[in-house]
Amino acid sequence: MTVIAILELTLKADALEQAPAIITETLQATRAFAGNLGCEVTFDVTDPTHVAIVERWESLEADDAYRAFRATPEGANRLGSVTADRELTRYTVHDDL
Predict the structure, then answer these.
(1) Which of 12, 28, 66, 96 is deepest in the core (most CB within 10 A)?
(2) Quick check: 49 and 16 in contact, CB under 8 A?
(3) Runs of H (alpha helix) within the chain
(4) Cα–Cα distance between 60 and 75 in angstroms, integer?
(5) DSSP-based three-state secondary structure for 39
(6) d(Cα 20, Cα 72) in Å, to the nearest integer?
(7) Model pTM above 0.85
(8) 95 pLDDT exceeds 90?
């Protein structure tokens, strides 16, 4: 079953200029990871520090493997240098409804 993962970021106000490059760099590995069906980056129209990254995964197992990868030294990224807070929410897609 397809999974949608929404990663909401609160960017540090003093990192707004660097954040797009670091997000782009991070998402290169995300998009290349097995089971990733795509990513979209959305910026809040009223709050420039609020970003939501919407990821689509083939399955919960693919997303779990990706999250495990990110917890390793090889999967580490620089998002922490530009974010004050992060929240991940995952949803299953029910095409039959």
Answers:
(1) 66
(2) yes
(3) 19-32, 60-70
(4) 18
(5) strand
(6) 23
(7) yes
(8) no
Strand spans (E) along the chain: 3-11, 36-43, 50-57, 83-92
Per-residue tokens: 90: 């995952």
What pLDDT, on a 0 to 100 scale, did the predictor assign at position 24? 97
Q: List Cβ neighbours of 34 (8 Å cut-off, separation of 6 or more).
A: 62, 65
- Other C-beta atoms closer than 10 Å to the C-beta of 18 total 14
Fold of 3-92: Alpha-Beta Plaits (3.30.70)
- The tokens for 22 are 């670091």
Residues 4, 23 contacting (CB under 8 angstroms): no
Q: Which residues have a Cβ under 8 Å from the Cβ of 81 and sit 6 or more positions away?
A: 15, 18, 22
What's the pLDDT score for residue 46? Answer: 98
- Band of the pLDDT at 10, cuts 50, 70, 90? very high
